[in-house]
Structures are given as structure tokens and as C-alpha cells.
Amino acid sequence: MGNGKAIQWFPGHMTKAKREMEASLKLVDMVIELRDARIPFSSSNPMLKKMINKKPYLIILSKKDKADDFLTKEWTDYFNNQEISCISMDLLKDNVIKLVKDEVHKIMKPWIERQKSRGINPRAIRVMVTGIPNVGKSTLINRIAKRKIAKTADKPGVTRSLQWIKLDKDIDLLDTPGILWPKFEDEIIGLNLAIVGSINDDILDLERISVYALKKLIKNYPQFLIDRYNIELEEDPYIFFEKLGRSKGLLRRNEVDYERCYKFFLTEIRNDKLGKITWEKVNEENNK
Questions:
Q1: What is the pLDDT of residues 92-115, one digit of tens each?
Q2: What's the pLDDT score for residue 68?
């Protein structure tokens, strides 16, 4: 699948965030990891698994409103069948407070019952909320807090500091900065992250991202491309981009400006102009 090329990506603030997260894990009882429903495998953080150890764990697939409904259901079933609690969410429209509370109480029920059996009045459950950049973590926190306390932006690496938020009298949430791991061993993971905007566009070549995205769309969602651009699909991706550039007037001295064409195409994808797309399927070769 990938070409074995490792992509280095570890800004200084993320090194600091990793240290802070390791320290904060000692303070919490369970962990919520947000992942992007469009890339449920690539948006996981392999460092997190080692750091969590045996703490109770919930995966929230965010941005389900942007993802393929059928594949989102397949992914939630996949995780739940492995006894990993997983739900999907539209962070802007769903009742996120109720969904999170219900899942936390269900997952932490054994812990609560152990406390009560020892004659201890259980304190508030302390829950760490984590995830890579741009998975909607700040949106979730702001919805729960019912006010804007976490910065949101459609670009990676906005949240930079730790903060506690009270969900209710029984649950305290610890927000953490979005962190990525030191490098992507498989370029495919980097490409998937780049398509949805979880890493900056200057990390990977725009041409490489766009050609990869086009090939995936031709394979899995060809009708989306035909409906949106009314362009006959060719095996050679550059013929598609040539036609797209000319149809949209993305020209320079009467020649297609491919750089502008790639940016236009990726912007269309990120703004959901083609439709609800999931870029990874359960048990694909690169999901290891």
C-alpha cells in the first residue's frame, strides 16, 4: 500500500504535549479518544495505546456527518466486537452531553460499584479527552461546557494547554492538546491525514495527495466525481486534472495550473462538495 517512506512530523509543542499527557494520565480514571470517522484507523495515535495501559477507554468517531454512513456503522461494530467501546457522533447536532455521560457511566460502572462495595462514596470520574489535531476535540469540549472555552479552527494544532471541564457532578473532563506521533511509518497514513486536513499541506506534496485521493475516489466513489464535475473518468489521473483545470478556468498562460487545480480539488473534498466519504475500510491491507 505505502511506499515505505517515513514522514517526520513532530513540532516542539507536541513533544511537550506528550510529556504533559503522560503526567496527566496518572490523574484520570478513563480515556476518551476522538478519531475522525472518515479515517478511523489513520486518525488513531499509536503512542496513546502504550500510554493508556489498562485504563478504561472509549473511541468517539467524530464528524460522522462527513463520513459514509454504512462504513461508519462497520467501523463502530468492528471496535465494539473487539470489546473496545466505540460510538459515532455529529459534534454539532447530536446531544453530545447525553451521549458522553451515558457511555462514561456504562464503562465506569464496575469502578463505581467497587467504590461503593468498599463503603466509599464515589468521587467524580476523571476522564481525559484526547485525539490528534483537527478531529473536533475543541468542538466537543465547547458543546459540553456550553460556552467557548477551547479554541477551534479548521487547522491542526490549535489547542495547546491542559484544562479541566465539569461535565456534571459525576464527571470531570481533562482536555489535552492534539498530538501526533513522531513519524508516519507508512506514507498512506500521512496521505489520509492530509486529505482531511489533520496535517499541514506543506508536510506532503499536493500532487501526491491529490492523485492518491483521486484514485481512491475512482475506486470507491466514482459517481461522486461524475456527478460533481461531469468529467469522464480516465485511468490516467492527470487527464482528469487537465479536464478539471480547463473546466474551472484554473489556467496560467492558457495552460492548466496544476498547483491551483490540486488545491481546488482538495478544498472541494474538505468542504464535502463531493459527498459523504470514508477513506478507509475495515480490514484494509494498511489497517494494521
A1: 999 999 999 999 999 999 999 999
A2: 98
Selection from 138, 190, 131 nearest residue 1 by Cα: 190
- H/E stretch holding 31: strand 30-36
What is the CA 183 to chain-centroid distance, rounded? 17
Contact 40, 80 (CB under 8 A): no
- Same structural domain, 171 and 227: no
Rounded distance, CA 181 to CA 12, Å? 12
Displacement of CA 170 from its chain's centroid (Å): 27
Structure pTM?
0.89
Torsion angle (degrees, nearest 10) of CA 272, 273, 276, 280: -70
Are the CB atoms for 129 and 32 separated by under 8 Å? yes
Are both 18 and 161 inside the same structural domain?
A: yes
